Amino acid sequence: MTQTTQRILVTGACGQIGSELIPVLRQRYGDTNVVATDIRPPEADCLKDQGPFELLNVCDRARMDDIIARYAIDTVYHMAAILSATGEENPTLAWDVNILGLVNVLEIARQRKLVRVFCPSSIAVFGPDTPHDCAPQTTILTPTTMYGVTKVTGELLGEYYVHRFGLDIRGVRYPGIISSETLPGGGTTDYAVDIFYHALKYKSYSCFVRSDTVLPMMYMPDCVKATMDLMDADFNSLRSHCNFNLAGMSFSVEELANEIQKHIPDFVCDYAPDFRQAIADSWPQTIDDSPARTQWGWRPRHDLKSMTRDMLEKLRPRLT
Question: Quick check: is 147 catalytic?
Answer without folding.
Answer: yes
